[in-house]
Amino acid sequence: MDYMDLLSSLGVASAHPGGFKASMKLIKQINQPGDLRILEVGCGTGKSSCYLAKKGLRVTALDQQPIMLDKARKRAEKEGIVGIEWVHGDVNSLPFKDESFDVVFAESVTIFTDIPTSLKEYHRVLKPKGRLLDREMVLFAEMPESIYKEITRYFKVDKILSMDEWLTILRETGFQCGPPVLDEFWSHEHSTDQKEIQELDVNALMNPEVAQGIMKYAQLMLAQESFFRACDFIAYKSS
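Given the sequence above, the corresponding C-alpha cells read:
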C-alpha cells in the first residue's frame, strides 16, 4: 500500500507537517478584507476547506482521490457548511480558467506532483497579485543515498527539494517569494488533536496492509526526521 492509499484508507485529515495547528497558522495569512476566492488543491477530507468556508471565504476544493472528496463532502454536510465547490481533478492540469482565484492554498501536496508543472498551473489560475500559500517538506541535510532512494520510492516523488531548490523553482515559474522560516518537522504535531484521532477510520486499522503501511511510514520518516524541515512558502504572482 502506497502513502496516498494509506491516507485515503485512514481518512487522515491533516497529514502535512505540523497538522491542523500549522494549517491555522498558514490561514492567518489570508487576512485581506473583501470577497476572496480560494482554491485548495489536494483538499483531502476537507478540514481546511471547511475552516476557510466558515471564515466567509468562497472556497473551491480539489482532490484527485474520489474517496477523499466523498469524506470532505460528508464533513461539510455534518458541519452544516454549504457553498464549497468540490472538484475532482489533477493539480498538474487544473480544470479552471486563467486568473480565477485570489489565493491557491496547498498543504504538502505540491511535492507529490510534477512540481514545475503544478506551480505553473497555480500561477496560471491566480489573479494578478494573487498569492500561493504552500506548506511543504524540505530537505534540510544530506542523508545516506540508500535511505533517500527508499523514501522517494515510498512517496513516489522524483526528488525531495531543499529550501533553495523550492525557491528557485517558484521564481522560475513566475512567483516572487522570500526565504521562509524553517520549522522542526514535527514541531506542532507532538500535541495530538484528539478530534482527528476520533475521525480516523478505525475499521481500516484492522487491515493488515494499512497496519504495515503505518509501520513503514514510521520506519522511514520518524527515524529520519532530523534530515527534514517544514516551511510555509508565501509566494506572489507579480502580474
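The chain has a mean pLDDT of 83. Try to locate this feature in the C-alpha cell string yourself.
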